[in-house]
Amino acid sequence: MSKLFFINIPYNCSDRELLEWVESRGIGTRSIRIVRDLVAGVSPAFGYVELKDVTQIKEAITILNGKKMRTQTILVKEAPSPVAGVALAERKSA
C-alpha cells in the first residue's frame, strides 16, 4: 500500500494546494483526496495521499510529518490497509 494519511490539514485546503505542498518537498504523488463535509463542502482536516513510489513511504513520512502548512502542523502516517479494516469489521459482526 502506498497511501499516507494526513491529519490536521488546514480548513478549506484544496486538493491542488495539498498536492503542491507534498510535491514541492520531492514526493511524487499518484492521487490526493481530502475528505470533505458533504453539507458544508469543507475539509474536516484529514485526507489521503497515494504515492507514485511505494518505496518512498518512510521517506515521505520523515519529510512531511510535523511540518507546517499555513499555520497548521501536519501529522502524517501510513494509511491502514482497507483489507485490514474489512477483516476487523467482519470479526466484530461475527
Protein architecture, described:
The protein has helices at 15-23, 57-64, 82-93, and strands spanning 3-7, 29-34, 46-51, 68-69, 72-73, 75-78. With 94 residues, it is α+β, with helices and mostly antiparallel strands. The longest helix has 12 residues, at 82-93. The mean pLDDT is 85.
Structure in a nutshell:
With 94 residues, the chain is of the alpha+beta class. The protein has three helices and six strands; from the N terminus they run βαββαβββα.
pLDDT < 50 stretches: none
Q: Quote the beta fraction.
A: 25-35%
Could you spell the SSE succession in H and E letters? EHEEHEEEH
The overall pLDDT average reads: 85
**Rg measurement, Å:** 14 Å
Count the beta strands. 6
Distance between the termini: 27 Å
Instruction: Give the overall shape.
Output: globular
Helix content: 25-40%
Main sheet: which strands, in order across?
Answer: 2-3-1-6
Biggest sheet, open or closed, and with what strands and sense?
4 strands, antiparallel
What's the tally of helices?
Answer: 3
Given helix and strand content, the structural type is: alpha+beta
Q: Keywords, please?
A:
94 residues; single chain; 4-stranded antiparallel β-sheet; 6 strands; alpha+beta; globular
Which SSEs are present, and which pair or pack?
Elements lengths: L2 E5 L7 H9 L5 E6 L11 E6 L5 H8 L3 E2 L2 E2 L1 E4 L3 H12 L1
Antiparallel strand pairs: 1-3, 1-6, 2-3, 4-5
